Amino acid sequence: MGTDPFRVAPSPWIARFAALVPAGGSVLDLACGGGRHARLFLDRGHTVTAVDRDVTQARLAEGAELIAADLEDGSPWPLAGCGFDAVVVTNYLWRPLFPTILAALKPGGVLLYETFAAGNEVFGRPANPDHLLRRGELLDLARGLTVAAYEDGIAEHAKVVQRIAAISGPGPAELP
Ligand SMILES: C[S@@+](CC[C@H](N)C(=O)[O-])C[C@H]1O[C@@H](n2cnc3c(N)ncnc32)[C@H](O)[C@@H]1O
Question: Recorded GO terms, molecular function (predicted)?
Answer without folding.
Answer: methyltransferase activity
